[in-house]
Amino acid sequence: MTKSPIKPFYFDVTEEEIDFFAEASKTVLKSGRLILGENTAEFEKAFAEYVGVKHAIAVNTGSSGLEIILRLKKAEGTTVLVPTNTNFATVAAVLRVGGVVQYLDMDENTFAPSLQMVKDAVEKGSNPAISGVLWVHIGGVISPEFPEIVQYCHDHGLFVLEDTAHAHGSQINGVQAGNLGDGAAFSFFPTKIMTTFEGGMITLNDDEEDYIARSLRNQGKRGMDFGGLHTDFGNSTRISEVHAVLGRIQLAKLPQMIARRQRCYELITAPLREAGIKFVSTDHMDHASQYKLMILLPEGKTAKEVKAALAEEDIFLGGTVYEIPCHLQPVFEGVCKGESFPNAEYWCPRHICPPLTSGMTDEEAKIVGDALVRHL
Length: 376
Prior knowledge:
The chain has 376 residues and is of the alpha/beta class. It has two domains: 15-252, Aspartate Aminotransferase, domain 2 (3-Layer(aba) Sandwich), CATH 3.40.640; 255-375, Aspartate Aminotransferase, domain 1. The protein has helices at residues 15-31, 38-51, 62-72, 88-96, 115-124, 146-155, 207-216, 241-252, 254-275, 303-311, 342-347, 362-375; strands at 55-59, 79-83, 100-104, 130-136, 159-163, 171-172, 175-176, 184-187, 200-204, 295-296, 351-352. The strands form three sheets. A seven-stranded mixed sheet has the order 1-9-8-5-4-2-3, sandwiched between helices. The protein has a two-stranded antiparallel sheet with strand order 6-7. The chain is globular.
């Protein structure tokens, strides 16, 4: 048994940060400016600088961000390639903007599609025509093939949008996730690398798209925070000033949180490497968010039994990414009907994600790694 339970989630906030949040929130309340104020502007500016993009637009959820960037690319009435191994929100965003989803299978080494899978889908074609790809950096892992995928898509006139819900701070070839394609949407859900309670951020490099995105999140009010002129068919997907306060706090310590996750990743995976247990590596990346460590289960092992065995040692596993691929979700029945995606069908229920947080100590990470070897 461990000294205390090792849990899969951790809200990384100090007493000093809580005090700062309380004082800043008090200032917001006294000002009466609850949305689209200086905290939102400062949060957006700092996030854009962190990712290395020209523009960052704060929204109420990552899901809203995905819908907006798809609208910017005029995905309505077109086919968008989407990994089946993703969250509900990725697929739902395409459907909500009036697009058609064509699923892509996954490679077990990255839990993302391969370049060849993208090529095969593009060469096969679709009706309506394919307009682009909504890519997902699962677990914060940027596929080593992703830069080639972006180039291939651009060569064929297709956009590449990034679902960066897991990839805060992930970087490859000197470029951060959120700046690798034609637009991205981050999530600040409570379980993510950083949080704003609920919230999200769009990252862009195009000035006109930035202008329209800010309109779409604010009921279509072009160039105005307030007023009664509605030009675009937008929605109310703004972030509040209080959410932005927490975002500023979390963003300031994001490098520190990622560094701790990286240290724990190294300690957990060291015994896995020695034992020959396969997992999705981030060794090819400059930096990884280490949101999830995907460990492939050996033959004869099930996620349920491994989770139960680890729980007996007070090591609690969170959710996988994802146990049920989207093409098997009842809500999406009829999407790509009759098609199968064998890799996702095999590996989605046959992997586990151990605790990996910025709240873990070195000792806890070593305990997790050793326990995984014993049970796998």
